[in-house]
Design a protein that fits this description.
- This protein has one domain: Hotdog Thioesterase (Thiol Ester Dehydrase, Chain A, Roll).
- It is built from five helices and six strands; from the N terminus they run H-E-H-H-E-E-E-E-E-H-H.
- Strand 3 and strand 4 form a beta hairpin.
- The longest helix is centred in the first third of the chain and has 19 residues.
- The model has no long low-confidence stretch (mean pLDDT 96).
């Protein structure tokens, strides 16, 4: 089940925090709870992605994107992700999640997130390709930034993110069925 109570708590906490610039970092704190574990008593990889949600949504709130989505009746969807898992997270480990808008292209926002253990080790790192949608499909990022009333240029995406995005564009859709 989706952790709605955690989300509501994190959103309430974010409302009390100062607003962020579009490319600033939101830091959130989480604890690996018993229902977050897999069979090996580690943070489940799917739950890791959900905890990243709990960092992205308050980031959108603090940067003004959340209000824009409500006003325009737009949606926010994840169009792709690449995740690197490196260190074990076990029950009751505390995590600090860093979330920031990395940059954009014509169609997508690229959001970088990382989880840090209390010993200073990074347990995982992810980049999400997010799309803003309306009833007609994807809203271009030029239109989004115009609605945000900013002409702040996008930082150049790191080369590896550009290559990943290019690879995603080459990937066939729908995938071939295997029997």
């Amino acid at each position: 089940m989706y952790p709605f109570f955690r989300l509501f708590k994190d959103m309430a906490r974010a409302r009390k925090m100062p607003k962020l610039g579009l490319y600033d970092t939101h830091v959130s704190h989480h604890i690996c709870l018993p229902w977050d574990l897999d069979l090996w008593n580690e943070l489940n990889n799917g739950r890791t992605l959900t905890i990243y949600d709990l960092g992205r949504i308050p980031l959108a709130q603090r940067s003004g994107l959340f209000d824009l989505l409500k006003r325009e009746r737009w949606g926010l969807t994840i169009a792709g992700s690449v995740v690197r898992y490196r260190r074990r997270v076990q029950m009751f480990h505390k995590l600090e999640t860093h979330s920031r808008l990395l940059g954009r292209d014509k169609r997508f926002l690229y959001i970088e997130q990382s989880m840090w253990k209390t010993d200073g080790e990074c347990s995982s790192h992810a980049v999400f390709r997010a799309a803003i949608t309306d009833r007609n499909g994807i809203v271009t990022t030029d239109r989004i930034f115009a609605a945000l009333q900013t002409d702040e240029p996008s930082p150049e995406l790191p080369a590896w993110v550009q290559k990943w995005s290019e690879a995603e564009d080459l990937r066939p859709w729908p995938p071939q069925k295997h029997r």
